[in-house]
Amino acid sequence: MLEELQGNGLLIHHWDTDGVCSAYLLLKHLSNKDIKNKTPGLGNYFLTENELTEYQAFDFVIIADMALPKENILTLAKNAKVMIFDHHLGPVIKEVFHHNPVIKGEDPNKYPSASWIINDYLKNPVNLFAILGVLGDHEKRIQNNSLFSKIINDFCKENNLTFDDLLNMVFLIDSNYKIGDKVEIENIPHLFLKIKDHNDILNNSKWNKNLTLLNDEISKQLEKPTEEIDGLLFKKIHTQYSIISTITRKIAWESGKNTLVINTGFFDDMDEIYVRSSKNLEPMIQRGKLLGYRCGGKKEVLGSIVPKEQTDSFVQELIDYLK
Question: What value, to the nearest 5°, has the Cα angle with vertex 300 and ends 295 and 304?
Fold first, then answer.
């Protein structure tokens, strides 16, 4: 079906490792097509009116690793053929080609990333970029998945790599969105088309500088106190960098407890809220959407952007739900 696409195309992808690796896999497969790639404004899980207006000039639109609102998709579909490749929760959008095994009832453990879903759809062999997308979304916890632990270990042996090498590549790639470099994010899939091997990622001087800066900021934020409320770990941070998911992940995975983090410093008029939990967060994701917030995630993860004056009330709902 991808081969049948005609005209000028747009590829919209997430800004993290899974998103840029997914974009690379698609661009490589469609190298004979005229395709421009874009990521939404960093932190936005939707398209703005300006973006929607600009993007309606394309003949086809591919969306990778993003559960954009249905209204956005249907607007794009008025003038273009739309294809979605994703693994996040959300409704099946029947009006377009929507390839997401997870929301169609398949085991999420078999489809841990959009990069893996795309690589499988393209019938590619296991490769660095399919695997980096998986590690980008799961980091060390993927080692608890017996199927993918073996796939990754075998790949490392065949390519003289270690798991930590792969993880460091993820951190380097993700450093670009965490410092807010949208231009570099959109350049990464094209850079991947040119690199010789994994060493070009590990030795990227710009990304290594990013990572040093971010690690210092993460350490500073982690040193601030974390409260415990009815078994829930709660932390408030104030930073200009997009590190809330990293901080939540570190606290939750090291403690084994449900964790909620608020960042008051990324947006002027909004707060970021991020939750990791052993309890199914789907009802609260739907609740956030019902309240009109930018809200998304998976069973174990909720990410939301909330007007500052409504943060406390939504946080209280989350705490009550997680008790």
Answer: 20
